[in-house]
Specification:
This protein starts with a helix and ends with a helix. By secondary structure, the protein is an all-alpha fold.
C-alpha cells in the first residue's frame, strides 16, 4: 500500500509540475503529457490494485472529465485543462477526483480574481501624472479585458489535485516513507 501511494503521489506531483510549466510558458498543456499521464495512472492502478484498481481509475477519469467539461463547453477553460484533470483522476479515483475538481474550481476562482485584480491595479498605478478618475477608468477597462483572457489554469488543477491527495493521506505516507517526520 505504501509503495502504491508513493508511486501515485510522485507521478501526480511530477505531472502537475510539468503541466504548470507548460501552461505558463506555452499557454497549453500538451497531449503527450495528458496521454502519458492517463496511461501511467491506469497501469499503476492495475499493477498495484488489480482489476478493481483499474475500474476505480477509469471512474476517476470520467469524474475528472465531467468536472471541467462544462467549463470547456462554455469556453472558460481549454481542452488541455479538461484532459489534465481527467488524467489525474486515474491516479486519484472517483471520490478524490471529484474533490480535486471542487478544489480546482475554488482555487481557480481565487486565482482568476487575483489575476484580474492585479492587472487592474497595474493599469491604475502605472500611468504617473494622471488623475485618479482616469486611472480608475483605465483599471476598470483593463479588468474588463482581463475577464476575457485565459490564464494558466493548470496551476489551479495541480493545487486541487495535490490538495485532494494530501487530504487522502498521501502526503503523510510519503513523509513517513522518506523518514522526514
Amino acid at each position: 500500500m505504501q509503495a502504491m501511494t508513493v508511486s501515485l503521489f510522485a507521478t501526480l506531483l511530477v505531472a502537475s509540475a510539468w503541466a504548470v510549466r507548460e501552461d505558463v510558458l506555452a499557454h497549453r498543456i500538451p497531449n503527450r503529457l495528458t496521454g502519458s499521464l492517463l496511461v501511467t495512472g491506469l497501469v499503476l492502478q492495475l499493477n498495484f490494485a488489480g482489476w478493481s484498481g483499474l475500474g476505480e481509475a477509469a471512474l476517476g477519469v470520467l469524474v475528472g472529465l465531467g468536472m471541467l467539461l462544462p467549463l470547456y463547453v462554455m469556453r472558460a477553460t481549454g481542452a488541455g485543462d479538461v484532459k489534465l484533470l481527467a488524467a489525474l483522476g486515474a491516479l486519484l479515483g472517483p471520490y478524490w477526483a471529484a474533490l480535486a475538481g471542487v478544489y480546482t474550481l475554488l482555487v481557480g476562482g481565487v486565482l482568476a480574481g487575483g489575476y484580474v485584480l492585479a492587472g487592474a491595479a497595474s493599469a491604475a498605478i502605472t500611468p504617473t501624472g494622471m488623475s485618479w478618475p482616469i486611472r480608475l477608468q483605465r483599471a476598470w477597462g483593463r479588468a474588463h479585458d482581463l475577464r476575457r483572457e485565459r490564464f494558466p489554469y493548470a496551476l489551479a488543477i495541480a493545487l486541487g489535485a495535490l490538495g485532494a491527495a494530501a487530504e487522502r493521506g498521501d502526503l503523510r505516507v510519503v513523509i513517513d516513507y522518506l523518514g522526514l517526520h
